[in-house]
Amino acid sequence: MLSAGTSSSLGIAGAQLRLSALAALEYRVGFWSDGVVSVLWGLIGVAPLLVALDHRPDVAGWSAWELMVLTGCFMVVSGIYSALVQPALVKSMEHIRRGTLDFLLLRPADPLVLCLTAEFMPWGLLESFVGGALVVVSLVVLGVAPSVGDLGGALVVFVAGIVALYALGILALAVSFRALRLHNITTLFETLLDFARWPAGVFTGPLKAIFTFLIPFAVMTTQPAQGLLGRLDAGGIATAVATSLVLLIVARVAWVRALRSYTSASS
Question: Packing angle between helix 234-260 and helix 148-178, nearest 10 degrees?
């Protein structure tokens, strides 16, 4: 059974998502046009992969349709970021910049949960749905039927990747307390996220370590794709989970310390 705190947090997130969806549907043309644009933007990212494959048979050991599986995983994560993470970060950073975070802090709930659910843009999830469809089509073309174990491993790593994504968002929030002029840090975050569309094997040396442990894009996209393709072992799954949990703990500590330094507009 879920604890009272977890149940309350899920209730808050669900209510905010429902309200955001209703607000977005008031302007249905904008809803669908924004959704289509986000999908097209995600698919355009396939172009660099196709260019690379035009000059070589594979990219870091990944064939064309295996890269499509990876691209689908990337689109799922990118859609979640655009729909659920980025809007909440922008809204919360605006509160921090203006000194109006009190509106969230005074509510009877975990302030971090309120910040991470401050606002949603549901149309971004269309990109995630298209990404999921691309994964399925790519696996069919490859003739790969993941086993129950492979699906379970991919799911565990995918959840770990989403946890890591939120942990990075929390760290961005913590940084914004100290550097108010970096309220557009989400733009930098979005730019960095684009590296996740490439296999982790493309990067070497320090970059590989950074994108595996410090900014674990490999956990978000490469490893779920490897799981679906039957290339992920128990050690890889354990490393992904451990990396995400450590990052989440660090992010939570950074948030608590940053919150202590917050000065409201009324202070």
Answer: 20
